[in-house]
Write a structure and sequence with these properties.
By secondary structure, this protein is of the alpha/beta class. The chain has twelve helices and 16 strands. The protein binds adenosine-5'-triphosphate (ATP) and magnesium ion. The site of adenosine-5'-triphosphate has 22 residues, from helix 11 and helix 12.
């Protein structure tokens, strides 16, 4: 049996009212709570006081007829179903009654219990279906509007703000928060999230989090938190509604719990209706779609940006190779053909000079290729990084020795203070860093210039300062001098490609350290490198 419906009989004839009541109470399929009114005035007043589901209306009332009653009723109750009853069985009245908004028409003199029961039941059913349809249409309209507004932006922050403002407006609630898991855990990907309740999902998430990386963080909210602590989900909240946001269920990829949509009501307890919950679930689906699109777009943009950078680097490499290779290659070619054509006539000292030139130029070209490959590996984040325990003073002693042997025009001094124990670094990269810095100090200083190297070992890091008395770097060029292919405007004819410092910086960053530059044009340059003793990546 269906739940009880409230039916109002408006008829001035007591016997008729009694008959209808008897007929209807006999109905096995439907139960009624029956109200009666013996006049139009009382009927209309009852309609205002009680929520009726259907009215049985006598056409011939003393003070107004059924059509006039309907007119009056429709001013306030637009959809309340009415079945008109009349003693005349007049077709014209029936048509008029239906036009005025009655749902059915029955002739009083032929009325039987089963006819009345069926008529009331079908009117009620139709009215129920119409109400449902209206609600569904309204819900679809609201969701479509929200979805459209959410999807109008591809910017994640904008999407979240729009969504919470729409939800607050839609549900008329005090606060809406979107929380996001701080990171998704791979071990959660095989779970069928849709089969779990919100509570189960949360428990599952916590159980699977070996550390607190997967905490929920409120990332977007609107409304007052009524003095409650800094946006965290508080247990003292009267009524809140939590809907999970799960991304990835719309395409082939596995659903991933992204976060939660939380709607709060503090001031009074609130019973959430099923439609409100369903509506919020649909909004959450739309939100998840928009989030996924926005994240995809931002990933694509990052990839495009990377691609652009790589392309620019490739073009630079091609330009540098063609430019920087031309001169040494021409020199090698000239030296080689001279040796081939006139080698036998040349004195051996001259032969040696040509061979030395070929060797030097080839070394230069080979270093250039090496540098460019190293740089491109850094750009693609494919650089090798194998830190090992390193004796820094020993490392510098042999580096300086190498330089002293090659350049006896400079006075290189090496000092050290502090403790270097526990220092770890990638040997190859460390060699690149200080080879470049020392070669710069030598290259950009006049012959006879002093170069001071100062090693300082501290508790958690080491510092290396390299000071020269060379040409310096113009002040306005210092901030960009670490970019690849950048060279100072004061270098004159000193050879170089502008790759050294960018390799230095990338290698230091890989160690988690930093490089600082102090320089004065014409006075000298001081480069300070600090490297942590204990590497974070390990
Ligand atoms: P290479 O790639 O062969 O090292 P390079 O020395 O020109 O070429 P970087 O080492 O990257 O390239 O240095 C970039 C620029 O910074 C140099 O061209 C120079 O103008 C300036 N520079 C670097 N170190 C010094 C220094 N110690 N004194 C003066 N200028 C310097
Ligand atoms: Mg250099």
């Amino acid at each position: 049996m269906n739940y009880s419906q409230t039916l109002l009989i408006v008829d001035d004839c007591t016997e008729d009212r009694e008959t209808y009541r008897r007929y209807l109470l006999k109905d096995q399929q439907q139960s009624y709570c029956i109200l009666e009114a013996d006049s139009a005035e009382e009927g209309l007043s009852l309609c205002h006081k009680v929520a009726c589901d259907v009215i049985l209306l006598d056409f011939q009332l003393p003070e107004m007829n059924g059509l006039e009653f309907l007119d009056e009723l429709r001013k306030t109750h637009h959809t309340l179903p009415v079945i008109m009853l009349t003693a005349f069985g007049d077709e014209a009245i029936a048509v008029q009654a239906m036009k005025t908004g009655a749902q059915d028409y029955l002739a009083k003199n032929h009325l039987k219990s089963d006819i009345l029961q069926l008529a009331v039941r079908s009117v009620l059913e139709r009215s129920h279906l119409q109400t449902q349809l209206k609600k569904t249409q309204e819900r679809q309209r609201v969701i479509a509007t929200i979805a459209l507004r959410i999807r109008q932006s591809l910017d994640l922050e904008q999407i979240l703000i729009t969504a919470i403002l729409e939800i607050q407006h839609l549900l008329n609630c005090e606060r809406v928060v979107i929380c996001r898991y701080e990171s998704a855990a791979n071990n959660l990907l095989n779970i069928d999230w849709h089969s779990l309740s919100v509570k189960e999902q949360k428990v599952c998430y916590q159980l699977n989090s070996e550390d607190n990386r997967h905490r929920l963080a409120a990332i977007c909210e609107v409304g007052s938190n009524n003095g409650r602590s800094n946006g965290q989900i508080s247990k003292s909240i009267n009524t809140n509604l939590e809907i999970p946001i799960i991304v990835g269920s719309f395409n082939q990829s596995k659903p991933i719990p992204w976060g939660f949509l939380v709607v709060y009501q503090y001031s009074k307890s609130r019973q959430w209706h099923l439609e409100e919950i369903e509506m919020l679930q649909e909004v959450s689906v739309q939100l998840a779609l928009a989030i996924q699109q926005a994240e995809l777009l931002s990933k694509t943009q990052v990839a495009l940006e990377e691609e652009k950078k790589l392309n620019a680097l490739k073009s630079q490499i091609i330009a540098t190779v063609s430019h920087e290779y031309r001169t040494p290659l021409a020199a090698i070619l000239a030296a080689a053909s001279t040796l081939k054509l006139h080698g036998e006539q040349l004195e051996s000292i001259k032969q040696q000079r040509f061979l030395q030139l070929i060797e030097n130029k080839s070394r230069y070209m080979s270093r250039l290729v090496d540098d460019m490959l190293t740089l491109s590996r850094f750009e693609q984040q494919k650089a090798d990084f194998n830190p090992i325990p390193l004796d820094l003073p020993q490392f510098f002693a042999s580096l300086v020795e190498e330089y002293r042997q090659n350049t006896n025009q400079h006075q290189i001094s090496l000092k050290q203070t502090g403790n270097f124990e526990g220092f770890r670094a990638d040997h190859k990269l460390l060699k690149k860093i200080f080879d470049n810095l020392l070669s710069n100090a030598v290259k950009y200083s006049p012959d006879g210039g002093k170069i001071d190297i100062n090693l300082i070992g501290q508790a958690s890091q080491i510092l290396v300062q390299i000071q020269d008395e060379g040409i310096g770097i113009p002040e306005d060029e210092q901030s960009s001098i670490f970019q690849s292919f950048r060279r100072g405007s004061n270098i004159d004819t000193i050879p170089g490609t502008g790759l050294g410092l960018s390799i230095v910086q990338a290698s230091i960053e890989l160690h988690g350290g930093e490089v600082l530059l102090k320089s004065q044009s014409g006075k000298g340059t001081q480069v300070t490198v600090n490297l942590p003793k204990h590497l974070r990546q390990e």
